[in-house]
């Protein structure tokens, strides 16, 4: 039986277990990344363990999310990351150098390797044939400390691309078509492997758009073959030596195959408030946005912005629209400047932002109240943009640029002769300037580096070992598809406190339930009740850490999103799934839950829960590996690492 790319990479990295779907395995990790939201956590773990040497080949901290604060909080965080990187042997990427995933593809991603990144869009580097998986900062830190990565062997879904995109139709439209077909749950428990003749027609940045949005499909990651296109990209990045060919065997077997004919695609948009609510751009032409954003780790390549500039050239941005553009990296920005493209953008009325996440996560350019935004980013959950009332449509750079001129959502093919866009390709050779990275070799005596911990960085909250008798009150009952943004929202006024846990915790569920913090503070121990796919969205581990900080011991849910479940375990919170989903309807906020003999019951994987005030008892499942169980019993990963 032939092997998929996924199976080839996993086999090469297997340390424990067998690659049978659903079975837990331990794999080695070659690279890691973290940034100025999630990397702080990883740095704090390194600080508490103080390793002599990291186990990974390449680890990088990027400053790309929290770059615009008007007070000193972000600078504190950046200084902390910089000095921790210098002391413990990581690369450090300065603010302005670019968005982590985008930069990682350019400068570090290698075919055949495994990367763990403290960010859900880590799959972006799958564009180069690397298994690149998002996780929480604590899990990433564990892999830097030689613990490898424990994962459930995924299924492999093959998205087979045939044909070639027509001008005006973009990689983003393929990603949206995949979401239309598979939905945000279609990839759960799976890795998406992109193959087929159509793949050969896509550049590495186009592949990155698709790999990036694999996480929106609910998948563990997405991966592309490493082929001639990959080789040419690495040559252009002066990294030819990093190339190896990596293709699936001709007779590779997949758990599911989805065919997409690129010839048939047309410009698509995702409607508010889910990436899988997909329509043709022509079907929503009556939508009139107030703002348009072209950027993010999904769509901020040179060719993305070049296409936008060709559409904008000779036109002015519509009077009712605020257009912002953020190039993905300093390298892209420099090419845009030297090739004269930036002048066309500025002349059209576009505002150029720094090379960072920015609007994608509500750091600046928050839409107005009840506003409508068109964005080339990857998520449109409520609150993601920094505004709870805004409606965000996701689209390609081509659709976004045409929309910015006409003032309503526009299929670019109705706006211009799209044949003019056919020659918008990536540079044959990129300008290489790594001066905005501080490299491990740049530091003469790493041991002497003092890690500078400013006022904005609090100690990590810790909890005791798992209690053998839990008695706790439900503090909130939630529906399906609760996102990590619902649990702890984005926006610069909130995220600037990400390293200051007592302050950051004040915003927990602040939009979903403004009374949550006041109520949970009155409880010593609490539980949270969720529906299906609880904790979907980002890898933001604070969505687990903050409830733990307030004393949450259990989350009951119909099902959990993978990364969030991992984070709950890392923070010593029991992720319990209803054995009978109807029991969800029988329990409410303010009910008291009692679990006896927790330690013994946990060993069986089935835990009985009593609700004395209702005379009710129901069964739950604790679906975790033996390793995760040890972590839970210790009270979380930090305790586990310290006690090891
Ligand atoms: Fe940054 Fe947005 Fe990409 Fe997250 S999804 S890494 S916030 S650009």
Automatic annotation (TrEMBL):
This is Aconitate hydratase. Belongs to the aconitase/IPM isomerase family. It comes from the Bacteria. Residues 8-281 form the Aconitase/3-isopropylmalate dehydratase large subunit alpha/beta/alpha domain. PROSITE patterns: ACONITASE_2. Its cofactor is [4Fe-4S] cluster. It comes from Youngiibacter multivorans. Monomer. GO terms for molecular function: aconitate hydratase activity. Its EC number is 4.2.1.3. The keyword Iron-sulfur applies. Keywords: Iron, Iron-sulfur, Lyase, Metal-binding. SUPFAM superfamilies: Aconitase iron-sulfur domain, LeuD/IlvD-like. Residues 527-580 form the Aconitase A/isopropylmalate dehydratase small subunit swivel domain.
